[in-house]
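Our consortium's second objective concerns turning raw sequence data into structural hypotheses that experimental partners can test. To show how far this objective has progressed, the report includes one record in full. It was chosen at random from the queue rather than selected for favorable results. The single chain below, 112 residues long, was entered without modification.
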Amino acid sequence: QVQLVESGGGLVQPGESLRLSCTASETIFGGHAMTWYRHTRENDRVFVASLLFRDLSTEYADAVKGRFTISPNNFNNGVYLQMNNLKPEDTDVYYCAYRAYWGSGTQVTVSS
């Protein structure tokens, strides 16, 4: 069983930044990816960004390209999601996923 712990959410104003962190309870090996999703009102989880540890390649949803950056942490067991120029429509619960495991989510609220 792998535990994922997210942190870094909060309440910010439009245009401000947050950095989310996701840490796994095991070392992540190259063949795996870690992915951020957001939770919509329709109970679907929507892709935000992912990082493949083999080559550190990244993918982003169109809505966050140029504003969000996913990167590995220094301990080979997690990722950061740097969220810049936040907008009210970014408000949601953000979840980290790794293999078949999910974290419990961290709330991001963007409001003036």
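The partners drew two points from this record. The chain has a mean pLDDT of 94. The two ends are 40 Å apart (CA to CA). Both points have been shared with the crystallography group to help prioritize constructs.
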